[in-house]
Amino acid sequence: MVWALLPLKDFVNAKQRLSGVLAPHERRHFFQAMVEDVLDVLAGHEAITQTLIVSDDPSAKLLAEHYAVKYWPEQSLAGTGLNGVVSTVAQRLQRQGVDSLLVVHGDLPLLSADQLNQLIAAHVAAPAVTLAPDRHGQGSNCMLCSPPAVVDFHYGEQSYQQHQAACADRGVRFNALTLPGIACDIDTPEDLMVLLECGDREKKSIRYLHEQGIAQRLRAMSIGIETIENSAQREQTL
Predict the structure, then answer these.
(1) Domains (ranges, CATH) in the chain?
(2) Parallel/antiparallel/unpaired status of strands 2-7 and 100-104
(3) What would the 3-class secondary structure string for 69-103 be?
């Protein structure tokens, strides 16, 4: 029995690091589009028994209703912060007899059913953690834990390394799997350009960027920055 946990921040204040290229309303709509891309995969995946959204944002509750998945208000949990929330959920689900917990984040628009299958297939018998990192090899984008509370959670800076160390301390089997779609979390303007290079208009997030003219704007900005950098390099060589 595998449950997927999708902890979500306040949609209005999500993705602050994109504030230099996206207006507040664009960040909010883009974040929701990414979350829907993730739910499109989780809600219909045959290996996932149940998907659980944890958030205090009203939009998250509406999405849970739309996708027919479970919803728990974050304020109903004892834990605070991402690590506290995930730990509280993991402990509660373990007490309820859930075998495994897959922690997924809402900024993974290129998540696919095939890559989830690969992650699950690579998972070994409990006690075990199988982790798919970000493209920099530092974050923990997808983390499959058996049983759910098998280790403490250490989301934040260098979380990949911290989770690996936590497994070693507990004698828990640790397996890492690099999966390109899962590795593409969207935090910075550079990440947005990586997402646009994918070009999959079936993804709601990519479609939103194109339909709102954001993709064209970002490309124009990128060309402008590249031109300035090239000019500066030429001046240095003169």
Answers:
(1) 2-185 (3.90.550.10)
(2) parallel
(3) CEEECHHHCCCCHHHHHHHHHHHHHHHCCCCEEEE
In one-letter notation, the amino acid at residue 25 is: H
pLDDT digits (tens, 9 = 90+) for 136-184: 999 999 999 999 999 999 999 999 999 999 999 999 999 999 999 999 9
pLDDT in tens, 77-90: 987 899 999 999 99
Nearest to 69 by CA among 88, 86, 54: 54
Length of the chain measured in residues: 238
Residue pair 59/12 in contact by the 8 Å Cβ criterion: no
Say if CB 114 and CB 103 are below 8 A apart.
Answer: no
The answer to whether the beta carbons of residues 104 and 185 sit under 8 Å apart is: no
Paired strand residues for 7: 54
Residues 199 and 209: beta-carbon distance below 8 Å: no
Q: In what order do the strands lie in the sheet with 140-146?
A: 70-72, 50-54, 2-7, 100-104, 140-146, 128-133, 173-176
CA-CA distance, 143 to 129, in Å (whole number)?
Answer: 7
Copy the structure tokens of residue 230: 């090239």
Q: Is the peptide bond before 127 cis (omega within 30 degrees of 0)?
A: yes
Alpha-carbon distances of 63 from 186, 218, 234, rounded to whole Å: 20, 28, 51
Cα 100 to chain centroid, rounded? 18
